[in-house]
Amino acid sequence: MVIVESHGLGWRTRLQLLFGLVLGLGLMAWFLGSLHWRELGHVLTEVQLRWVAAAVVVMLLQYLFLAIRWGILLKHVDPGIDLRLLWSATAVMWGFNTLLPLRAGNFLRPAVVARERDVPYTTLLFTTIAEYVCDTFGILLMLMWMIALLPPERY
Fold it and tell me: pLDDT of 75-88, one tens digit each?
């Protein structure tokens, strides 16, 4: 006889959530333990909240634009993908890039989408790699344009 859970989360999902929670709390404790609280307090007294608010808006807009760009690359893989899912996956990526070394959050963004959609993780990972290849070409084009705009050297 097979027992099927009619409500709630399965044991595997609960284990994944527990692992994520423990990892997140451990990283948060590590971060908070390494802070220089007195210096942080001094800096916070000097902060102008309007600039913090402006930075938050710009950061959230950046996440939105990155999610839209990634969504364009994913249209041929999953035409019905939701922008909210892409935005939250992008926010997870940047959040973990802040906490983990070597931009490890880049591997989590495709995992967040693969968990919610019926698209293989490797396919999503390679669209991320394609995104970075396009970024590299864009940076090279901007560099060549800037070099072309340099004034000629005079002797």
Answer: 999 999 999 999 99
